[in-house]
Amino acid sequence: MNQAKFRFLSFLSAVSLLSGCATLPNDNAVWQAYSNQNIDFNAFGRLSIKVETRGSHGNFDWNNQHSENFSVIDINTPLGNTIGELCKDSMGVVAENNKGEIFTGKNAAELSERLLGFPVPIDYLDLWVNGYASTQAPYKISGNKLYQDNWTIERVLDKNQQPKAIMLQRNELSMTIFFDEFSKLNHQNDNNQHLICPNRSL
């Protein structure tokens, strides 16, 4: 494991998954196949990672404009220091680390693992957060769980039926994303100003 990956997995030592949302998902957090619904949104919150016996956590800012075919996630330490930025658009995936180094690729999971030390399923994550299974890959729905792309996914909704948390499991990796704010977008009112995406003049 290289030094960048080790720093992320080790910062603030190994911490346990936050227990505040570690309950069973709401009964009404159902799943359905995606069919062109509006899932443009801005969100920020916290994420908790456990890889085998190692755990860590951080913060994120997420701008997702599915209608414009891009999704940008900034991941930071709890103190606000940037760990990396990951973007998916029509040309593939771009990542930038905290040194300003740019990495490009076609596979989001492999590129995020190279940058952060673990795969982020950005290919389908915006759909999953909104309760949809992608029709671009095989999936199975069983009760409150969705199985797709080798991930097991569960959701928690708040009283307004907005995402409160999403829990993902894949082999030895567990990821929980907690939403402090989640708001749908009218993409026509967004100026699309991001560091590495959708601007591709790298």
Mind sketching the topology for me?
Blueprint: H1 3-10, E1 32-33, E2 41-51, E3 54-65, E4 70-76, E5 82-89, E6 92-97, E7 102-105, H2 108-116, H3 125-129, E8 132-133, E9 139-142, E10 145-148, E11 151-157, E12 163-170, E13 173-184
Parallel strand pairs: 1-8
Antiparallel strand pairs: 2-3, 2-13, 3-4, 4-5, 5-6, 6-7, 9-10, 10-11, 11-12, 12-13
Helix pairs in contact: 1-2
Write up what this structure looks like:
By secondary structure, the protein is mostly beta strands. It has one domain: Lipoprotein localisation LolA/LolB/LppX (outer membrane lipoprotein receptor (LolB), chain A), CATH 2.50.20. It contains three helices and 13 strands. Strands 7-6-5-4-3-2-13-12-11-10-9 form an eleven-stranded antiparallel β-sheet. Strands 1-8 form a two-stranded parallel ribbon.
In short:
The protein is built from 3 helices and 13 strands; from the N terminus they run αβββββββααββββββ. It is mainly β and 202 residues long. The longest helix has 9 residues, at 108-116.
Task: State the separation between the terminal residues, measured CA to CA.
Answer: 27 Å
Q: Record the strand order, biggest sheet.
A: 7-6-5-4-3-2-13-12-11-10-9
Number of E-state strands: 13
What is the radius of gyration? Answer: 16 Å
Contiguous runs where pLDDT drops below 50 for at least 5 residues: 1-24, 189-195
Find the structural class using helix and strand composition: mainly beta
Helical content band: 10-25%
> Which topology does CATH recognise?
outer membrane lipoprotein receptor (LolB), chain A
Q: State the order of secondary-structure elements, H for helix, E for strand.
A: HEEEEEEEHHEEEEEE
Mean pLDDT: 78
Sketch the major β-sheet: 11 strands, antiparallel
